[in-house]
Design brief:
192 residues, single chain, 40% helix, alpha/beta
């Protein structure tokens, strides 16, 4: 199945998506977050749920994104053949709590899986079209880069993406630092 419609959102935005004929959902939630009630109002769809915290460094009593989580996203992408060209049917929605970090890293991974010949810069442009406020988890992108044998190209493109986001949304600097991810701000590459 190919997917002409790709959506990324946060939990609060899920009720607004129920009439969009969503066929597949990837939910990324904190491990202790309750199930999402909004999906009861959705038409029949396939849903995969992964549970880990939105962190890039170890923290007590928190679960970091692991290689196995990213591998599950890759397997999902392979099974669904998430392609951006010649799409025929389906609407794939990916969400996390805010629709900014884990979900955008997952969508990037799905796009890279379904389009292995597409260059990393193009994948990030597509991601920004789907979710302009995207700030993908650097840890998840690094794991995807390794598992998809991208040779560091996803990380290089992520640095430039972060730089563009800082220019477009300077308030992200304090926001990202305050959630404990200063390393991502420091890795941003400003491009002219």
């Amino acid at each position: 199945m190919n997917f002409p419609a790709l959506t990324i959102c946060g939990i609060e935005e899920l009720p607004a998506q129920r009439d969009r004929e969503v066929t597949h959902v990837l939910s990324i939630l904190d491990p202790d977050h309750p199930e999402i009630g909004a999906f009861e109002a959705y038409p029949a769809h396939c849903r995969t749920t992964l549970r880990f915290h939105d962190i890039i460094d170890p923290e007590p009593n928190k679960i970091m994104p692991q290689s196995g989580h990213v591998n599950e996203i890759i397997r999902l992408g392979e099974s669904l053949k998430l392609r951006t060209a010649d799409a025929e049917s389906g609407h794939f929605l990916v969400h996390c709590h805010k629709g900014v970090s884990r979900s955008t890293a997952a969508m990037l991974t799905l796009l890279a899986t379904g389009n292995p010949q597409e260059d990393s810069e193009s994948l990030f442009r597509r991601l920004a079209e789907i979710r302009p406020q995207a700030w993908p988890s650097s840890l998840m992108v690094r794991l995807a880069d390794e598992q998809l044998d991208r040779g560091g190209s996803l990380i290089a493109a992520l640095r430039r993406h972060y730089g563009r986001q800082i220019v477009a949304r300077p308030y992200y600097i304090d926001f990202i630092i305050n959630i404990g991810r200063r390393a991502e701000v420091e890795m941003a590459e400003m491009v002219a």
